Amino acid sequence: MSRHTSVACMPLLLLALAIPASAHEHHNELSEEQAAAPIDTILWLHIFVQTAVWGVLFPTGMVLGLSRSRWHVPLQSVGFALTAAGYVLGHSHKGRAFLAGIHGTMANVMFIPIALQLTLGIYLKLHIHERSLRPWAVRLHGVVGKAYPILGWTQMLFGAITVRGYCRGDNLGQCLAHYIMGSGFIAYGTIMAILLLVGEAWIRRSGRSPEWWDSWVIMLWGIVNTFTEHRGAVWSVKDMQHTILGVLWWTGGALGVFLSRNNQRSVVPSLIIILTGWAMSEHAQALMLSTKVHAMFGHTLMLAGLTRIVEVSFIAPKYAPLEVSDGDSHSDHTLTDTGREEMSTGFGAAGRAFRHLPSFLLVAAGLLFMSATDEELDFVHDLDMDHVTYVLIMFSVAFLLYTLIVTLINLYATSGRNAIAAAADNGIEMAPASKWYARVPVADVDAEPAHVIGDDE
Q: Which residues belong to any copy of the Protein YTP1-like C-terminal domain (predicted)?
């Protein structure tokens, strides 16, 4: 067995040892003493280790895998070992006891992708079945690896809910609405940042503008919301507001899909974001603190939509008709020499800096919405904290999260097989003559791009 395979096997052995350690039980009922007991050092270590591994280490290893860096395997091996250690810590603590819930169940479920990823990694290191099974293993390894940030985010969220004892009984529906949609806004901002910074080749090869994809997601999500936001016979004010938001999304999304055909840019998704933000800013709540936080969430969302409109309408270089067009497979517009000149001057650099605004604001809006459940704001209210302090705390977390996002994007563009191209381009921002919204000419489709999202071959 090779040295690399031996290193990869070590976390698998540790994981096997960690499974029997799950002797710590979650309870169906808690005494007042158990619920009020302090969180001990071992549990704090569990929280710190698992947050560091799933929030930073595994996403970093995933990015290094995408760029084919030699540090991918060592980093992921360390991550697997620390995950096993964190699992043992989580089932060894004393003090505070917790009700049985989704966090403990998810911890056991996550052994499936962990074991699968380890097995696939070891198999790929053996370099066997090169022309039969290995290509499929490479694809599956990539799919599971890309799911790690989602799994980690979900489990960390479940952990926070478990610690506070939230989302039980009648509060479950509100938790689902806030945490799912808030996470959706964060994912939207993250994907937007990826596409703007290193997704140029993918956008050009797809032959679709970003707004075309946005509109489809908005439309489908609106259809789901239209039929799931009202339950029972009585229509409350919130039921009516949430249901009409669903209608707004699928009707506006349908218009956005039509206007974004043929690789056209569109402001419709941004307009839907602005209207959603306005609705949330007028969303009356039981507590004044909650009303203020919802209002700030709405204003942040409105600003995200406005900055996106500015980026789409004014930051992108000028257009000119293509000489040859074959229908919907090509854009009606491409760069002119004037557009290239503007991008080569200060205008292009300023535009690339401006593009971070909608992405960051979407991340911040998502965090604000996730932090605006009744249970969370009741807790903040009991601490005598005002909305200004609370909102600024959330924006501070948003700055940290967006720093991690752009750091990982930069790491992808400057590591592994992308390191040489990054040195030639002097950074991860798009080159001055970028045509990221215009489809690649047919003759260039097979050329090897510097940065390709989703290339697992």
A: 152-412
